[in-house]
Amino acid sequence: MGIVKKVILIVLSVLVFADAGLCVFAVHTVGEAHKAVNKMHKAVKRDSTPEGRDWDSILKDQKPVSFLLMGIDDGYSAQEKGGRVPHNDTDLIVTINPQTKKTTVLSVQRDIYATIVGNEKPAHSKYNTSFLYGSIKDPDTGGAKMAIETTENLVGIPIDHYVAINMDGVTGLVDAVGGIDVNNEREFELDGVHLMPGEQHLSGIQALQYARYRHEDPKGDIGRQDRTREVVVKVINKLLSADGIANYKKVLDAVGSNVATDLTWDDMLKLEQSYAGALKDIESLSMQVASGAIPGDRQAYLFVLHDDLLRVQNILRTSLGLTENQYLSNQIPTYESMFGFTPTHANANLYDAEDSTGTFENPNVKEPAADSK
Prior knowledge:
It is a single chain. The chain is an alpha+beta fold. It has two domains: 3-167 and 255-288, Nucleotidyltransferase, domain 5; 178-246, LCP protein (Aminopeptidase), CATH 3.40.630. 39% of the residues lie in helices and 20% in strands. It is built from 14 helices and 15 strands. Strands 11-6-1-2-3-12 form a six-stranded mixed sheet, sandwiched between helices. It has a three-stranded antiparallel sheet with strand order 14-13-15. The radius of gyration is 20 Å and the shape is globular. The model is unreliable at 1-8, 17-28, 76-82 and 353-373 (pLDDT under 50).
């Protein structure tokens, strides 16, 4: 799991599910925390409630809940003539069941070819464009709405609420705790950050790139995962330390300035009271996908596999106490429906979602697609 995904889970935990150490933190900051939550609150107007979900009844009866957690990359893109291009590049679907005391987390690969619900042109695109196209329709909360509905269509469950964190929030949390100390093993340069080997104190942007780089590392993704774990652990330790408590206003400001959610303060209090115990048992899911190219389209895509997606859908539905699906919606483009056969390791490039974050080739394009980070 990448650094952004882990930080998103940290943010959700800080906001809603405080552990013993953070409870001490919260006692001294309840007023400021309330203000921060009010600052980040952005309700999404839905045309209908999927599968008859009633949030008040769910909380009252302590039924399972679901969240879409998004890491929003709001960076500049030359292809968009330098404009701001918000994409939901990191997406976690989280179900929390207080009855079984279990949390299920599914990571959705950003390059999956998906139906972008509510968008006409294009009706299908990379999954991570759903926030972008929604934002074009409604700059305030349209991105979250379209991302939620696109996700519901793909994974076959209702999404109760969302939490979106801007990429700046990753760097902001590190800066808010005063940075972190690391022993960098090798020289690297990534997105304007150049670090030499040796012990050094990193700022937020330096820590982010320290965790992300991999091309200079002979261990590749394994090395990146090790550094990601190192950064996350050090941030958590500083949050729970005296320094973290002393800097609580900076931490709340970093969260409040870079997070949007439709959860209210009262929602968070109720979730903390009744659902926190389920975070002690977390099951991570991944979907199997296969790379493919659409004739005449220069984009490289990943495609879900019919049987595997149905398996994942039913794990999630079971975690929410819903009946299992017997078949997939015909609005979901699968590898089989797009190419007419079931992919195997012998006839296609297969990946687990967690392992498919590197570069893959599109036969329609001579050069490899841009590296996913």
